[in-house]
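In the design runs reported in the main text, the only information available to the sequence generator was the tokenized backbone. The following block is the verbatim input for one such run; it is reproduced so that readers can re-run the procedure and compare outputs position by position.
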């Protein structure tokens, strides 16, 4: 069948790219899914496991068979990061994003912004890869409905979104965080749980903390001071990523670190691109020890030298929590573990990231309790 032969066989992968065993197994599983006639299959791999590496193998195999491929992203940073990776892999491609300088519609592979596609006519494609497919946009659901004959692979470390199984047919679990730690592909987290904010008066809206009330509860001088003092005693002067509740909270944390003599920087979605690039470059060099944000570094940010994480944003979202901790688990020379300073109580609330995670797509249906009541 055409779907089963969408990407190269296992022997070709081994000879050309020396993929890790779990990556090879995942591609085999995807191949079998398409061979059974499935069209929309998700691949779950932890942050740092090499989802883009596997995607490049699939794309290369499709192009070799004369197929046109779309790789769809939901953030500008991910588009540019994917484009650079494809350049490194020797995959000729264009970019579909606003007025992007790499507009090359003749290329067989297109790296696309889902937001740009939502406003344009979709190009023809024989194979589609969706990055971070747990983020469900209207344009994506329309794509799944209208292009139901085109094979699609969704990539995610956290495919836990409610109702995701209404749009995707099956989930392949390529590996787990604990397995990758055991095999040396990720480093283990060392978690500290210092006292956090009082959340008793913070409401829950749509399954998550009320953001305004959460900001008031967390952005308190004593709590921010505790973040700095805990890092000074437990952070070992490591390169550190901090996730705050809101922009004001993040800037407050940064100012307290700077006042303590620790070079720190804040970035957010509104930070000018050049300023953000300069801050992240300084962080990569080690000139900045702490980089703080709200959400902008949660997905797609790859800085293996970062080996400490400050969780200052309480969340009820397993997706947010797992994605954030994953930022510091990538290995690097001399890096043996990652310190997690959890001021948010997220580990106590949601479990360790090495605990078993959901391995099936949620179908959006209300679950029944043992008594037979709907939950």
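Verbatim output:
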């Amino acid at each position: 069948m055409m779907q089963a032969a969408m990407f190269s066989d296992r022997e070709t992968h081994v000879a050309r790219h020396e993929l890790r065993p779990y990556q090879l197994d995942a591609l085999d599983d995807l191949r079998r899914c398409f061979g059974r006639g499935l069209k929309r299959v998700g691949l779950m791999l932890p942050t740092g496991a090499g989802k883009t590496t596997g995607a490049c193998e699939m794309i290369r195999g499709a192009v070799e068979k004369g197929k046109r491929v779309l790789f769809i992203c939901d953030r500008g940073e991910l588009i540019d990061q994917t484009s650079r990776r494809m350049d490194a892999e020797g995959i000729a491609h264009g970019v579909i994003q606003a007025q992007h300088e790499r507009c090359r519609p003749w290329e067989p592979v297109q790296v696309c912004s889902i937001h740009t596609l939502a406003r344009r006519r979709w190009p023809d494609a024989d194979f589609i890869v969706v990055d971070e497919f747990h983020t469900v946009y209207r344009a994506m659901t329309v794509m799944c409905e209208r292009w139901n004959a085109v094979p699609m692979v969704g990539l995610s470390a956290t495919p836990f979104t409610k109702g995701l199984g209404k749009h995707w047919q099956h989930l392949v679990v390529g590996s787990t965080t604990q397995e990758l730690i055991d095999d040396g592909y990720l480093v283990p987290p060392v978690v500290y749980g210092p006292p956090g904010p009082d959340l008793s008066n913070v409401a829950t809206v749509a399954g998550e903390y009320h953001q305004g009330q959460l900001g008031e509860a967390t952005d308190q001088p004593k709590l921010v001071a505790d973040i700095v003092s805990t890092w000074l005693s437990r952070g070992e002067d490591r390169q550190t990523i901090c996730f705050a509740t809101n922009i004001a909270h993040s800037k407050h944390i940064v100012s307290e670190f700077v006042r303590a003599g620790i070079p720190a920087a804040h970035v957010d979605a509104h930070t000018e691109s050049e300023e953000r690039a300069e801050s992240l470059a300084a962080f990569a060099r080690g000139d900045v020890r702490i980089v703080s944000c709200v959400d902008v570094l949660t997905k797609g940010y790859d800085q293996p030298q970062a080996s400490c994480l400050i969780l200052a944003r309480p969340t009820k979202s397993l997706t947010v929590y797992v994605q954030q901790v994953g930022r510091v688990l990538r290995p690097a020379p001399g890096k043996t573990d990652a310190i997690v300073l959890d001021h948010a109580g997220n580990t106590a609330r949601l479990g360790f990231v090495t605990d078993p995670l959901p391995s099936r797509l949620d179908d959006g249906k209300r679950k029944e309790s043992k008594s037979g009541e709907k939950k």
